[in-house]
UniProtKB/TrEMBL annotation:
Belongs to the class-II aminoacyl-tRNA synthetase family. Type-1 seryl-tRNA synthetase subfamily. L-serine binds at residues 227-229, 281, 380. It comes from Cryobacterium sinapicolor. The keyword Nucleotide-binding applies. This is Serine--tRNA ligase. Keywords: Aminoacyl-tRNA synthetase, ATP-binding, Cytoplasm, Ligase, Nucleotide-binding, Protein biosynthesis.
Length: 422
RNA sequence: GGAGACGUCGCAUAGUACGGCUUAGUGCACCACCCUGCUAAGGUGGAGUACCCUUCACGGGGUACCGUGGGUUCAAAUCCCACCGUCUCCGCCA
């Protein structure tokens, strides 16, 4: 949720942000009107309630003879109070509903426009070239006995798969490598619940435009999370944090579930876009003024990891229209996937500033002793999808795949993965 | 799945049988000051969160909050209902 004070005092800033996102600018005026209405009804209710409280004291201390008459008077007052309370609650609900449609104001410098308007900040590594026809990750995965899509479909349907043998080991190795790096960088590992209550899912902002992407279990009123970000953000909800010793940083390890509802027909081959995968997610709670520095720090950790794995990539500043409503800025890192002749997203790192924290009521104490919402950030450090880029980038003509040196310690020292039976 | 107990201001507790004298008491911890040669002990005072109004500001006034949400009532921590959570016992089970 945006800061209601900012809305009141600087609506133009929010309008500019809505505009570059391609979101509704009128919603800002609607919110302002709803705020005025809300405050008026609150005042009316509180004044009535104050007189009712006064009256209650009179009734309590009145001699029994007068009590009856006073109670009769108080009854009519009670009717007014009730009506005013209802009006105020309604106005509050209307205000909240409108304000929550407003997205987090983007940070200065975020490119305007939609998905294609991203700005490339830097690229790393030459695009790999082959003196043979490179195989795609699924063909390699099948040769290596690593990926089994057919049986995944048999058991669970399209976009499900088995990772088997070296494929399973590869994923565990990646996750562990990422975890060790996160530990070294001061992150606290956390294995998170993947089923969460509605208010947590809603608080992280995923029930908005992503609602149809999410698995829901009506019998239990629980949502399956598409990223451990949800549980990591909910972890400290309704708390006042002590950030005097620095940010709180967590590395969440979880399976992620996504319906991929809007992506019919896209990336149907292999494990690029699947309903279930594993991810190691970094999450940081920081003082708002440190959020942008933390954002860069997260991206640096991701780049270190990608470089260690010998992948070629570019870092992009995602355009305003392609940000989720919670993010004020988002850096994606996309690795080169040879057979697609394209960069594909491997990590996504969002600075949610205080937007998410305000919804989840996560605060810290300022120097003056007041409370204020913290900043939250999240970013990927490893996912199943990375296997795609690793297999394709490091493949050799005979279908074997070189294991990047940095990954070998987590694979028992294996330096080359060879086709099964070869 | 069945039966029961419980959820109060950071922690621990009182208050709930009889609704109004509770702007929720007490202890510990906390902060400021006083006192004692240091420490300990003692004394005095202060402390929650959110929102609304007012003020240039310091501040002042008000409303709500006793797990959450409803309800009864002139009035609810206290009565009623639902939900969430914790604990105990029984049953079942990978």
């Amino acid at each position: 949720m945006i800061d209601p004070v900012l809305l009141r005092e600087n609506p133009d800033l929010i309008k500019r942000s809505q505009k570059v996102r391609g979101a509704s600018v009128e919603a800002v005026d609607d919110a302002l009107a709803a705020d005025a209405e809300r405050r008026a009804t609150i005042q009316a209710f509180e004044a009535l309630r104050a007189s009712q409280n006064q009256f209650g004291k009179q009734v309590a201390s009145a001699p029994p003879a007068e009590k009856k008459a006073l109670v009769a008077q108080a009854q009519s007052l009670a009717v007014d109070v009730k009506a005013a309370a209802a009006a105020s609650a309604e106005a509050e609900a209307r205000f909240t509903a409108v304000v929550r449609t407003l997205a987090n104001p983007v940070i200065d410098g975020v490119p305007a426009g939609g998905e294609e308007n991203f700005v490339t900040l830097r690229t790393h590594g030459a695009v790999p070239t082959f003196d043979f026809e490179p195989r795609d990750h699924l063909e390699l995965g099948e040769l290596l006995g690593a990926i089994d899509m057919a049986r995944g479909a048999k058991v669970s349907g399209a976009r499900f798969y088995f990772l088997r043998g070296i494929g399973a080991r590869l994923e565990i190795a990646l996750m562990n490598m990422a975890l060790d790096r996160a530990l070294a960088a001061g992150f606290v590992p956390l294995i998170t619940p993947t089923l969460v209550r509605p208010e947590i899912m809603d608080g992280t902002g995923f029930l908005g435009e992503h609602a149809d992407e999410i698995y829901y279990l009506p019998a239990d009123d629980l949502y399956l999370t598409g990223t451990s970000e949800v549980a990591l953000a909910g972890y400290h909800s309704d708390e006042i944090l002590d950030l005097t010793d620095g940010p709180l940083r967590y590395a969440g390890w979880s399976t992620c579930y996504r319906r991929e509802a809007g992506s019919g027909g896209k990336d149907t081959r292999g494990i690029i876009r699947v309903h279930q995968f594993n991810k190691l997610e970094m999450f940081a709670y920081v003082l708002p003024e440190n959020a942008e520095a933390e954002h860069d720090r997260l991206v640096a950790l991701q780049e270190d990891m990608l470089q260690a794995l010998g992948l070629s990539y570019r870092v992009i500043d995602v355009a305003a229209g392609d940000l989720g409503s919670s993010a004020a800025r988002k850096f994606d890192i996309e690795a080169w996937v040879p057979t697609q002749n394209a960069y594909r997203e491997l990590t996504s790192t969002s600075n949610c500033t205080t937007y998410q924290a305000r919804r989840l009521d996560i605060r810290y104490r300022t120097e003056s002793g007041k409370t204020a919402p913290v900043g939250t950030l999240n970013g990927t450090l490893a996912t199943t999808r990375w296997i795609v880029a690793i297999l394709e980038t490091h493949q050799q003509e005979d279908g074997s795949v070189r294991v990047p040196e940095a990954l070998r310690p987590w694979l028992g020292g294996i330096d080359v993965i060879r086709p099964v039976g070869a």
